[in-house]
């Protein structure tokens, strides 16, 4: 049953990992928290643009702490978590795409940005799909790196568990969590064994880009939720893994 589903989660070591653990507990799974991302703020703030694009809750929070606000810019957020954080900061969110991806935002904005200045503020690992797509739509794009994403020291217990066949599920929330998981596995000398262990388990990816990154490394992704949220990912992965295991 689902109590036996040991599910690795790789969210940053802040309230996100805490909420992820609580959610997995509520689903009857056994959480294996193994943060694969740590945030190093750069202290930068966006330049002025007719459109400002924010891609993460983390970015919003850093800008709010710095006292930044979007002014008269059209504020665009990828996904509900980013938009909710922006509203909590007191900002008006003007645009949220139906598809919570870089490609989805490009499709959403493309008809309106020809000749416009667009400021993209995000991490150092943002996808070129967004900036290239906006430029192709005729926008004058500038990018500001708000924070760097690094792998925390000591990360990787989940890789050892996967290599030993002790995980039933793994929940990847970005391409970088996949890369950092594999780097941690390699440092422990268990990269191939960890991949084999994941392929005997249920692997969840939050969206197509994360799935594609996993697949490029030989990891078979079982679950991609319809909605690109951690909640949807966790529910789908645990429900998929649970029937496989019996008392």
TrEMBL record:
GO BP terms: uroporphyrinogen III biosynthetic process
Coiled-coil spans in chain: none
Pfam families: HEM4
Domain Tetrapyrrole biosynthesis uroporphyrinogen III synthase: 20-233
InterPro entries, alphabetized: 4pyrrol_syn_uPrphyn_synt_sf (IPR036108), 4pyrrol_synth_uPrphyn_synth (IPR003754), UROS/Hem4 (IPR039793)
GO terms for MF: uroporphyrinogen-III synthase activity
UniProt superkingdom: Archaea
Protein name, entry field: Uroporphyrinogen-III synthase
Organism encoding this protein: Haloferax marisrubri
């Amino acid at each position: 049953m689902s109590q036996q589903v040991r599910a690795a989660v790789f969210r940053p070591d802040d309230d996100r990992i805490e909420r992820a653990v609580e959610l997995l507990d509520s689903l009857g799974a056994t959480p294996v928290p193994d943060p694969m991302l740590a945030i190093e703020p750069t202290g930068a703030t966006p330049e002025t643009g007719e459109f400002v694009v924010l891609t993460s809750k983390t970015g919003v929070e850093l800008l709010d702490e710095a006292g930044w606000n979007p002014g008269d810019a059209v504020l665009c957020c990828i996904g509900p978590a980013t938009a909710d954080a922006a509203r909590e900061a007191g900002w008006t969110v003007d645009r949220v795409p139906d598809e919570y991806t870089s490609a989805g935002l490009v499709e959403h904005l493309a008809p309106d940005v020809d000749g416009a200045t667009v400021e993209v503020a995000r991490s150092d690992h943002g996808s070129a799909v967004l900036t290239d797509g906006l430029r192709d739509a005729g926008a004058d794009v500038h990018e500001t790196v708000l924070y760097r994403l690094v792998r925390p020291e000591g990360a990787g217990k989940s890789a050892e568990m996967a290599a030993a066949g002790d995980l039933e599920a793994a929940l990847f929330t970005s391409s970088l969590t996949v890369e950092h998981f594999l780097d941690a596995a390699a440092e422990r000398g268990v990269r191939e064994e960890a991949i084999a262990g994941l392929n005997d388990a249920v692997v969840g990816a939050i969206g197509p880009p994360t799935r594609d990154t996993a697949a490029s490394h030989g990891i078979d992704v079982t679950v991609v939720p319809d909605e690109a949220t951690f909640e949807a990912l966790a529910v789908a992965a645990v429900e998929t893994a649970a029937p496989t295991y019996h008392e």
